[in-house]
Amino acid sequence: MATPQTGIFALGTASHAYLEMDLLPGADASTTLSTVASLREPRTTIGGVNVVVGFRPELWRSVEPDGAPPDVASFDQPVVGLGGYELPATQHDIVIWLSGSGYDVVFDLSRTVVMALSPLAGLAHEMVGWPYHHDLDLTGFVDGTENPSLVEATGVVTIPDGRPGEGGSVLLLQQWEHDAIGWESLPVADQEAIIGRSKADSLELDPRPPTSHVARTDQDDFGKIFRRNIAYGTLLRHGTIFVGFCRDQQTLASMLESMVGIGDGPPDELTTVTRPLTGAYYFVPSAEALAELGERAPGGAMAVVGSAPA
User: Fold this and answer.
1) pLDDT in tens, 129-175
2) 135: domain range?
3) What domain count does the chain have?
4) Which of 94, 139, 167, 255 lies 20 to 30 A from 186 at CA?
């Protein structure tokens, strides 16, 4: 049975880096992907780092033709909703997500990974994130109230056995910047109406406003996803790194369309106080598929990702 990459479920890490990379002109796709796959994930120990690797779906299939669902596709076109509100498409070839106990080890390993891949791929976009008061986002609301438990999450994110890409998952990665001044100027009651939950205890409003974020992304309607969102930024420019995993890309795509008012219902009111800067889909292969590909890398497994003694 194929299993998902364990870093997807490594909760509680204090520092995160998302490295989006593109193949350099002339780089061989097979060599590049096998080299990325050869980055070995360490045991999670004190000072250890978790690694999750994903690829542009078409790039992965160019090397592993039956290794991903045939309908999984890149975020190549912006999603434009009512009033011209746009979810930008900023697709890259590779994503490497590093998470660890502190930013020092995450920074060191980010730099090491980028240097190791420099003959084949260049860093196109970097995001650094950190948890905000355990489980809040920078709006002050709990982020991920409807997240499945870790027991349930494996089934939510994992493509079932017997299907192309078994053990893998689809990742939607976006960077959303908050309108901090606009948001903080709103009374709490107005903020709650936008989110659809109470701020103090994250209880769903009854009745819930039809334009609220809860109403427009209801997982009972669209299907379950597993979110690993994290805060990022400075006082002047900050927001949420949306990190959503699902075994079915359409679940993620339908939620985005709903947010901007495509189809039935109004746009998500949350889009009036936050806007996406980036958007990409990545296929995250199973641990076994990644390990098998990594063995093909020139020189075999590359031990660039290490951990401190337990």
Assistant:
1) 999 999 999 999 999 999 999 999 999 999 999 999 999 999 999 99
2) 10-294
3) 1
4) 255
